[in-house]
Amino acid sequence: MAELQSRLHSIREGDKTAFELLYNEMHRPLFAVIYQVTQDKVLSEDVLQELFLKLYLSPPKPSANSHAYLYRMARNLAIDSVRKHKPQADWEQAEKTLSQTDNLSQALDLEDAIQSLPEQERQVFTMRIDGGLKFHEIATILNAPLGTVFWVYQKAINNLRNFLGGTL
Which of 5, 100, 108, 167 is such that its CA lies 20 to 30 A from the CA of 117? Predict the structure, then answer.
């Protein structure tokens, strides 16, 4: 947490290396949060690029909730982007991604299971698993009580187990 605050401070001072380190550390989890909202790889990449451009041009002041700030910013930009764009299927990219999976059937089952979750459960599950966020960070991003986030996550796990026939 202090490392992120230090990087943001360095970026505000014009340190391009700190920006590169921030990108290398945060682009995957931020992309996961963005993708969860957009459900579109190309659009998610555009939103991620927009996010880092905004961070480069006007980095936030370091605060105790820097991680939560970045995730909330990513989520809000993704929501705005979805509102502006109509979803477009990118079948070629989907086929390429799925062809890289060893067990296509298992990957499809898991993706179907995740998509079957109600939106709140899907968001919490994705932020926790794909984004690697801690529960308190998710609670801050969603502006929800910590106990609610725990409960929603457990509910998502149980629903995934039921959908997958207990194989999760």
Answer: 100
DSSP states of 7-57: HHHHHHTT-HHHHHHHHHHHHHHHHHHHHHHH--HHHHHHHHHHHHHHHHH
Model pLDDT, residue 105 = 57
**What is the Cα–Cα distance from 24 to 109, expressed in whole angstroms?**
31
Round to whole Å and give the CA distance between 143 and 40.
25
**Residue listed under structure tokens 């299927």:** 89
Domain at 2-84: CATH code: 1.10.1740.10
Domain segments of the chain as ranges? 2-84, 101-163
What pLDDT, on a 0 to 100 scale, did the predictor assign at position 151? 92
CATH 1.10.10.10 is the classification of domain 101-163: yes
Question: Tens digit of pLDDT for each residue in 41-70?
Answer: 888 999 999 999 998 888 887 676 788 888
Q: Checking phi first, is residue 76 left (phi over 0); if not, alpha (psi -120 to 50) or beta?
A: alpha
Query: Counting beta carbons within 10 angstroms of the beta carbon of residue 74, is it exposed (0 to 12), middle (13 to 18) or buried (19 or more)?
Result: buried
CB atoms < 10 A from the CB of 20, how many? 12
CA distance 138 to 167: 26
Amino acid present at 136: H
